[in-house]
Specification:
Elements (H helix, E strand, L loop, with lengths): L5 H8 L4 H16 L4 H4 L3 H5 L17 H11 L6 H12 L3 H14 L11 H8 L4 H7 L2 H6 L2 H14 L9 H4 L2 H16 L7 H6 L13 H7 L4 E3 L7 E3 L3
Antiparallel strand pairs: 1-2
Amino acid sequence: MTGAGSGAAITLAHHLTGDAATWLAAACIDVQQHPSAITRYFPAVSRRCGRVPLWADDVRGLRHGTIDDAARGVLLGALTPIGPALVELLDDLYQHGDAGEKRGVLRGLHRLDTAEQPIGPALLPLVDDALRTNDVRLVAAALQPYGAHYLGPDAYRQAVVKCVFTGVPLNVIANLAERQTIELARMLVDLAHERSAAGRDIPDDIAAVVAAFPECLHRPDLPGALLAELQPHIYIRSNDTCASWTRTFT
């Protein structure tokens, strides 16, 4: 986990108008000197800075967030309180904020969880709250570096499955490559099996997780079409009963 909001500021600078940049810079100075002032600036960010996604190919802002998400992250980076006072202030921002403000807190938490002054899992209840919603942008924000780092194994796996159910691409999850496990892969194969049997589409990114644990596909109950969809480049069907498989390395 790393601190500082400079990375967000560099990306954000390309999107802000002169007036917006001036307003944000002044707000950061005020927040540095008077931390409680952030409760006044946080709600105004969308109106003063904008709401569009930071990246044009991320049309819903699920992976990289939106301009106001990033601007709120910069404001969070200006905070100086530490310890319980910081946790209380961040909790207050989330609990009293609208959906955009909640996203800003969730996406910015890792900036304040530094090695020198860690927040630790104290704000996991905010992550849990967001994951209970059906707001895909809140769900995606909950699985940015802070939430994706501190969620326990069971909660993490359930969060990944929720992404599949709600249509959140798995590539928005901050550390999926590091935290994927064979248990998660099995859950995703089960989910893909259910969706296939119901005639529903299977998200392409399920296969990326299953690819790391191909042994999850050694099941006689999986139809050949599903196996081909989940691992088209690793396994080929050897007969119609799916009793055996031939490994390929193409």
